[in-house]
Every structure is written in C-alpha cells, then in structure tokens.
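Ticket #4471: structure export looks truncated?
Reporter: QA, pipeline team
Priority: medium

Steps to reproduce: submit the single chain below to the structure queue and open the exported record.
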Amino acid sequence: MNEILEAFGLTDDPVPGVCVAGEWRQGSGGIVEIPNPATGEVLARVSLAGRDDYEAAVSSSVEAFLRWRTLPAPQRGEYVRRLGNALRERKEELGALVSLEAGKILPEGLGEVQEMIDICDFAVGLSRQLYGKTMASERPNHRMYEQWHPLGPVGVITAFNFPVAVWSWNAAIAAVCGDPILWKPSERTPLTAVAVTKICNEVMAGSGYEGVFNLVAGTGDVVGEAMVDDRRLPLISATGSTRMGKIVGPKVAARMGRTILELGGNNAIIVMDDADLELAIRAVLFAAVGTAGQRCTTLRRLLVHRAIADKFVDRLKDAYSQVRIGDPLDDGTLMGPLVSQAAVDQMMQALEAARDQGAQVVYGGKALDRPGYFVEPTIARIGKDAPIVQEETFAPILWVIEFDTLEEAIEIQNGVSQGLSSAIFTQSLKNAEKFLSATGSDCGIANVNIGTSGAEIGGAFGGEKDTGGGREAGSDSWKAYMRRQTTTINWGDDLPLAQGIEFG
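Actual output as written to the record:
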C-alpha cells in the first residue's frame, strides 16, 4: 500500500488537494480522511479547497484560456499526445492506485488507465479533424460556412467509480478543442486525481500553459456549488446520481450555461429463448458483478424469456458461486468491496424493501463479516411491477424478471426513468433489428450479444431521460466543447438580401 502511495508522492499529511497552474497548495476547506475500501483503514488525509482556492483555480483557467485558444489545434494535440505517453509509462502504478482507493479489482484499474491512454490517442487525431461545413448560399457571389471555436474553461465533476477515466474523456477532448479544465473529483477518490494532475504537471512544465489542467478537490457545497454557479465556466460536465443532476442541470441552465450530464443507469439485458446461453451467462456475470455493481452501466435488471428462465437462473447461480471476493489488488479476485459502509447499508435496505415487495433472493444477499465493505453479489427474482426495480441501487443486486414476448420485454426495459445502456441476446436477426429500431430500446447505448458495460471510447457515451442526455468521448462529442459560428462572406459588388427581400 505504501509503495503505491509513494509512487506518486502521496505521503504528505495532509496531501494537498489543490493545484493551480502547476503549483500545489494546501486547501483551506478542511481535511478529509480517505479510507481503503478493502480494510476500512485510512490511506491518507487530503486538504480540500476553500472558496479562495477555488477562485485562484478558476482565475488561472480563465487566464490560460486566453492563450491556449490561440495555439493551433494540432499543437494542442501534441500536448495531449505527451500526456498519453506519460500515462503509458505510469499505467501500472496508476492502475494500482485506482484499485487501492476505489476498490476496483486490479485488471479494472489498469483498464481504466488504458481508457485514458486510448482517449488521448483519439483526441490527438481529432485535433486535425475539428471540421466545419461549407453550405450553398442562395445569394450570388456569397460563400457560407460554419466553423468551430474554443468554448472556454470546462468544469469537470467526476464520481468515485471511474475516478480517472471519465476525467480523461472530458480533459483530452476539451484540451484539443482549446478549453482548459477545472477538475473537482469525488470526495471519496481525491488521491487518484492528485496523481493524475501530477502527471499533467510533468507534461505541461515550462510550456507556459500550466493552467490548462487545474485541480480543486473539495466538497459539493463549497467547490461544486461554486462551479455550477460560475458564469466563467460555460460548460459543466458532471457525472453522478440523478438527484445530483437534477440540481446541477437547472442551476447551470439558469445562467445560460451548458451541461453534459452522465447520471444514473437502471440498465437491462433481454435474454430471448433463442439466445446463446453460454455467451449470455458470461456477459451477465461481468455486467452485474464487475466493479462490485458500481458502474453506471452495471446490469440491474435481467429480463429472461419465461421458457428458459429457470434453467438460466440455475446456470447463473453456478457462475456467481465461482466469483472470488477479496482484496482488489490480489491476483484472482473478481469482485472487490463497495466504496463505503453507507453503500453496504443502502444495499441491505434495498434488499429488505425488495423482500417486502415479493422478491425472492436466490443467491447472496448478505454483507460479509470481515474488515472492509464487502458484500455477496445477489440475484433476486421479482415481479416486473415491483417499485424497487424502478430505482437504481448502486450495488451488485441483479433483479430477474420473466417475460413472454419481445414486445413485453422492451416495454419492461423502457418502463423506467433511466435510459443509459441496454442489450439483447438473440440469434434472430428480426429480434435484434426490432430491439435497435425506433420502437425498441430507448437508451443511449443498445447492444446485441454483448453486455451493458465496457464502452469503447470511439463511440459517444451517454444516455437519455433521467440519465441526463449528454455525450462524452467519441463520435462528434467534441462539439459540446466548442462554439459553432455560421459565417457568410460577400465577395461580390452587390448586397442581395436573403429570401429575395427588397429594401430601399
């Protein structure tokens, strides 16, 4: 444990949680203890930002923007390329730190860092592809086109379950678009944010653009509220609960700012009676148990055709019994702890409520009597109308619901307020295409014969309804970080008006 912390110089007491233009400072917003989810022991203490620290950081971001926006995009991409290379060099160490602080198993921690590397590679290519369009003008001797300009400093609020990857989705893309980043990490995982910011500082040192990556670890009521209300941040990208998003969204909108909201996901997989069951079992297992059920893309609702439901659940129980629970840094561990005791308590409360609503727990359902915040992954059979399945419980609980027809399954899947990720397992082309059609899944992500989790950075990531509607990472998500400008040039000697209007 000490070796992992020492690798990033996280041995100060307290660890400074504020970085302004490459300079570290002890925050004035109090000190927070960061526990190891696998043991409950304190890993480190971190000093949090106060309002004065926040003001220094946002002022630095604004000042950096004035210079960063004038640097050609391919040159901005060069800094992101260096960041990706630096992450490659520190992948093992940073992946281990993610596992230590967030409780994710080591392969997932390493995978998260690989995601950072991949988005940097993507952004480097993007830096030469910030394309506009040329449109035909109805007026003679006129040219009309659109172009994209940097938007301004971007406030990024991240969650504990992906403490570094989601920051990188925003930071790499925003940086090549010409926008500095002001980062508020989760209060539960500030150490990984400090480590990443130190890597950024190494990359940017001596460049004159040190203020492009600023860090303000702090509480929601101090730093979070300040960011949301700050007109100097034209875009807020926030990942967290739907409850949080319903606060952030209206506040930013009230000042005419923009948001990218990545919120709750009450995700479902439909398993048809013609599905490849072996494939489906493997996909369900990872989607439901990976990251101890603490992904926004975690499988929450398993919709199984009634004809195969009993057989499928029996095979799934056998797969669950082979899941090794333990220290996330140990080889062979497939499921680590929940992030906190509060998360354990919430899981137990959800199961109690489910039993009252007719649920039958067929596997797991208990907190483990050992140090740390460990639970058994849980399978519960439940009716489709139970109120508990309408909610997202951020824990490894899988609700099994039976159906008779694909139409019924789609109705059940879409009948919740969240709309992030979805999947169907079937060998029927007709079933797959119906699921992917306008009458099928209403989610931002719809998969066929793969699970709900494990998004690739090349595609736009995000969901609909209470999930927030924003998009990050790939495709044309970059447009959210820029402002569009439509331009018309008259290269003739006359002044014709649009729509043929005659004036004077």
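Status: closed, not a bug. The export was complete when the record was re-opened. Leaving a note from the reviewer for reference: The two ends are 79 Å apart (CA to CA).
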